[in-house]
Amino acid sequence: MSDPSMPLPDVHVQAEVLVQALPHMQRYDQQVVVIKYGGHAMGDRAAAEDFAEDVVLLEQSGIKPIIVHGGGPQIGKMLEKLGIKSEFKGGLRVTDEATVEVVEMVLAGSINKQIVGWIGAEGGKAVGLSGKDGNMVTARKVTRTAVDPDSNIEKVVDLGFVGEPEHVNRAVLDQVLQAELIPVLAPVATGNDGQTYNVNADTFAGAIAGAMTAKRLLLLTDVPGVLDKNKNLIPDMTIDDCRRLIADGTITDGMIPKIETCIYALERGVEAVVILDGKVPHAVLLELFTDHGAGTMIRRG
Ligand SMILES: Nc1ncnc2c1ncn2[C@@H]1O[C@H](COP(=O)(O)OP(=O)(O)O)[C@@H](O)[C@H]1O
Ligand SMILES: CC(=O)N[C@@H](CCC(=O)OP(=O)(O)O)C(=O)O
Asked: Which residues form the Aspartate/glutamate/uridylate kinase domain (predicted)?
């Protein structure tokens, strides 16, 4: 008999960790998990490798991961290099003809292929697509209004070629998943008018999660989750809490489209959405395969 006061040898600890993951693996078996990998979360090479390892491990465990990536900071850098000015209104990039070309080049080109490459290097098989491929996502132009501070009159804000998903054709994704491939999606889509639209990556991920009735939508960003007024992490929230914290100004800026996405996805049958820090090593595994979880979990109520 071993002495129970003695620490377990490493191999036994490893076995214990694996056994602890079993109920979590069973809970997600054959379920779709949509992971939004934000441009800020991409961070350094080591963080990206951890992320790719997590995704491959999920797929090997019988989960069906779908990756939707952003790339806001990377688009910003490329626009700067090309001398194209860029501004955000209400968390969305004002997108003219020249900007949309760069957005598609960076998102559907370099970033998409980089993530596909990282997953491939960890032994997974990923397929990089944008909303345009197979008419997976069609978009319509976003219309926003804002009160003009000078006249105090509500006016239409023209964001140019910024779109929001109008229709998601899940057949394309079903086929990719059935072939045991990992879809990596760039948030670019075509409108019914044939125009290319720049879609916020959170919004795109929410539409995909809703159409696939995903078990989980994970939004990986650069903060630990939703923070209260004292900057403490809020571990659990409901849709009502979300609306209250937007109304009282606790949730602002880029967190607003994220929370709106959460509400949209939950109302379409996604079981829970988690906002978490993608820079934490193996954030995805910690959230899905341990009892601790990570970040802020949002449920219907
Ligand atoms: N209550 C809040 N809790 C956490 N972050 C918040 C909150 N309100 C606003 N934010 C801001 O939202 C940002 C995350 O949104 P964003 O920068 O668009 O992320 P990403 O690029 O990952 O999509 C945080 O870095 C933070 O500055
Ligand atoms: C309309 C709009 O704002 N689109 C975003 C698309 C990329 C994105 O959302 O990337 P992150 O998730 O890294 O922020 C943009 O042009 O930056």
From this structure: 32-276
Decide: 93 in ligand 2 pocket, CB within 6 A.
yes
226 pLDDT above the threshold of 50? yes
| Structure tokens, 40 | 């800020």
Nearest CA to ligand 2 atom 17: 72
What domain count does the chain have? Answer: 1
> Per residue in 73-86, pLDDT tens?
999 999 999 999 99
Please check whether residue 5 lies inside any domain of the structure.
no
Pocket test for ligand 1, best of 255, 296, 298 (most atoms within 8 A of CB): 255
| Region class of 133: left (phi > 0), else alpha (psi between -120 and 50), else beta | beta
**In terms of residue numbers, what domain contains 261?**
33-299
Instruction: Find out whether the beta carbon of 38 lies less than 6 Å from any atom of ligand 2.
Output: yes
Helix (H, G, I), strand (E, B) or coil at 47: helix
